[in-house]
Amino acid sequence: MALTFEIGDESRPKGHALLYFGSPQAGLLATYVVLLPVKMDMSKYLPPMLAAQLGGLASEMIGDGGGSFAAPPIPEEVESIEPLRHLAELRGDDFVWGGDMVLGDLQAAMRQATEAVHEYETLYQRYLDANPQPSPSAPERSLPSDAGDTSGSVQQVVYGLMSDRDRLAELSKLVGTMRFALESQDEALAEETNVSLQALGKALPERFWGERVRRAARDSSDAGARLAQLYVERCYKLLEEDFAAVQMLEEQIAALAEEAPPQGDLRS
User: Fold this and answer.
1) Residue 167 belongs to what domain range?
2) Residue 86 scores a pLDDT above 70
3) Which conformational region is residue 148 in: left (phi greater than 0), alpha (psi within -120 to 50 degrees), or beta?
């Protein structure tokens, strides 16, 4: 069966169409064709008693179970083409002529409508096959780095809302957690704590040396533990503006880490 698209494009069917048969001189019949985007076995929704009474007509009325059908299954007589054409334009439907049809032969009308539905579905499937769904791109795998991850970014925002004293309390707690993770060889906890220390270090003012605290905390040696303790003590002395104590702690840090403290006014 050849279908004539009066509105729409047979190379790009929309999946829904006003379908009519006949001519103004011989009489007009029309139905509506639907291709469901979700496949459905419509026979499940037909009462068994009614299905038994209809017999072979049931499959013609409800299609092949794939979700394509005409409603009504037997085209109804209409007075004019123009109202249908206007509706198709308003609704964005394809407007399709299915050929001539003999009025009065209901079974022949149903069969012809079913053939038209199958032809429309064939054109639609051809269109889908020519436009396959793009393959989903593989998600990019982020390489592990000291920059942290999304959870660290969220933590950084939270830490940014804290006071310096609250941040230092959190810093002290995280250093203790890191030491525990290293001693118990809990790699997952150590990595999680490292991310938190990175985020907290970015939220702290630079004068607190947050990154140095993190590196010392990750050092599993006794020297690393001592260095982390000195760094935390220095943070608190800075907060209290006890710069004499800060100077003493920095000398101990320099001797232990063989690393001179940064230049500049620590009170800034």
Assistant:
1) 150-257
2) yes
3) left
